[in-house]
Structures are given as C-alpha cells and as structure tokens.
Design goal:
0% strand, mainly alpha, elongated, single chain, 5 helices
C-alpha cells in the first residue's frame, strides 16, 4: 500500500510542478509598452503581486499533496469519504477561500492575476479528482486480491 500511495503522491507532485510552471509562464506574458517611469513602477508592483500569488499557489499545492499520506492509515483508506477528503479536501478549501475572500475584494488586486490563479486551482482540483478515482480503483483491486 505504501508504494501505491507514494506513486500517487509523486504523480500529484509532478502535476503540481507542471501546473506551477505553466502558471508562471501565463503570468509572465505581460505586454510591456514604452511607458513612463511611474507606469514601469506599477508594472513592477504587478509582477511582485503575481509572484506572491505564484508562491501561495505552490505552497497550497505542496501542502495538498502531503495529505495523500493520510491514506496510509487503514481506517482512512478504507472509507471512501475520508479518502476523498485527503485528496481534494484542502485544495477545495483553498479554492473556496480564494473565491470568497479574494474575489470579493477584486478591486484591490489585479483581476487577471486572481482569475488565472482561480482557473489553475480548479484545474488542479480536476486532476486530483481523477487521481482519487484511479486511487480508489487501485485500492479496490488490491482489496479484492487479498
């Protein structure tokens, strides 16, 4: 069982890193036009804000992937609902937090940065749901073999 959980954790970590790299590429696509000094300073602040969002995104994905190891506990692994919470519980809370707290105060942030962060978080949730379904299939297959 340790091998199965570790395999799914590695897959999730690779998905997280790939999404983070893609997220960084997307937020790096800024249109820089010849501007005055103040507009350049504002662009610099926008880049710092985007880097902060990227750091928050990376930390949230890493913490979310660590919860997979809770499936090593037999009681959690055998209960589909508890196992589901280990896969998508923390990512769902993070996305709901972003939508409720950050999007309400959208005027304080760059709209595109927050919208991009929410989109990538939802994509991450989709991948974790697929991983959960594959994990449950592997656990059920292993349980029927014994």
């Amino acid at each position: 069982m340790k091998r199965i959980v570790f395999k799914f954790w590695i897959i999730n970590l690779l998905i997280s890193i790939a999404l983070f790299v893609i997220y960084r590429i997307v937020i790096a696509e800024t249109n820089s036009v010849n501007r005055n000094l103040f507009e350049t300073f504002l662009d610099f602040l926008d880049i710092l804000l985007n880097l902060g969002f990227a750091l928050i995104y990376l930390i949230a994905m890493f913490i979310s992937s660590l919860t997979f190891f809770l499936n090593l506990i037999k009681k959690i692994r055998n209960n589909s609902y508890l196992s589901l919470l280990t896969f998508i519980g923390i990512p769902s809370v993070c996305v709901i937090y972003l939508i409720v707290n950050v999007l309400i105060d959208i005027r304080l942030y760059n709209e595109t940065a927050v919208a991009t962060l929410v989109k990538f978080s939802i994509i991450y949730l989709f991948f974790t749901v697929v991983e959960f379904l594959l994990f449950r299939k592997a656990v059920n297959k292993l349980r029927t073999e014994y």
